[in-house]
Amino acid sequence: MPTILIDARSMADTKGGGVSRAASYWLTDVTGRQTARYVCVTTGRRPSAKVQNFCAEHNFEYHHFKIPNKLWTLLTLFNLTSLQRYGLKKFGEIDTILLPNIGFTGPLTAPYHLLLHDCSFAIEPRWFKWKMRLWHRLLPVKNLIKKAERVHCVSEQTKNDARRLYDLNPEKLSLTHPMNQGLNDSPEKKPAWLPATTERFVLLMGGADPRKNIYTALKAVSLYNIHQPDRPLIPVVLGGEPHNPFGDCPLPSVIAPHHIADSELIYLYKHAQALLYPSWYEGYGLPLQEIQSYNKLCVASTAGALPETAPPGTIFCHPAKPHEWLMALNLLGTE
Questions:
Q1: What pLDDT was estimated at residue 16?
Q2: Alpha-carbon gap, residue 77 to 233, rounded angstroms
Q3: Residues contacting residue 325 through CB under 8 Å, at least 6 positions apart
Q4: What is the radius of gyration, based on Cα positions, of the chain?
Q5: 335, pLDDT greater than 50
Q6: Three-class SS of residue 78?
Q7: Could you tell me the domains of the chain?
Q8: Does position 330 have pLDDT exceeding 80, yes or no?
Q9: 196 burial class (0-12, 13-18, 19+ CB within 10 angstroms)?
Q10: Please, which residues bridge with residue 174 across strands?
Q11: For residue 334, what pLDDT is reported?
């Protein structure tokens, strides 16, 4: 039976958000196609309960390499260690490696499959803070992508971007949609941080991420509330406090903590009036897929992969035109 090593660190990342969930969805799909000995590996000061639960559900082995992540990064940068070398010591010969995200792995000689979420870091570095830009520069992104046996792309947009940016052979690129697998089956829990008075609210993702462009959504909600003063909408922002470069739009009433539990996310999905997603660029747009089963109004940007991947019934608006988003919000009616 082949031994397949899984770099599960992206699933252990509490700030991973959609990337972490997409990684688990992809792994569930890929590992279900082949019988093998699957071994998940994480690094850091302590094991990940989330990865432990995932492994228990799928009958995988779980091994935690107790080393600080920053030290791991330095060691792999200088080729002093690698996931494969660690795996060889602990489990013997590794037949294949699964990488659910780009990360510091060290040298890999075994064939590996890589899940590519998007190429935003290469398309527009200014979307990221200087620490992330440095991180992207240190990461051997081009090497990891070009040397992969297969690159699994979450959309045609990502596939075409990867092919154009890294001059890849189309035959090594495959399309995979990390569809929601089980989030909606989990119990819901009302977040303790959500004020009791928050009845009519809309969800906005990626508050601190300039790429998510939530200013357009905030402006639209502000205009909506001017026209509907008796039935205002409260923006609930996930992913950090937004930076408003224009200063003419009030900050949202509710800003979620940086990490929320899946049960809290389900509550927000079930009780939100709408999900607004005015991103400048997306490789997939997982929240749109996750909320669709709750029959909510979804409004998405015309940019990136969203017109390709968004579920049926999604309304598309230009990411720089708040009045279009206002028109979409008016469809909420007077329920």
A1: 59
A2: 48
A3: 216, 217, 219, 220, 276, 278, 299, 317
A4: 21
A5: no
A6: coil
A7: 3-178 (3.40.50), 184-332 (3.40.50.2000)
A8: yes
A9: exposed
A10: 152
A11: 47
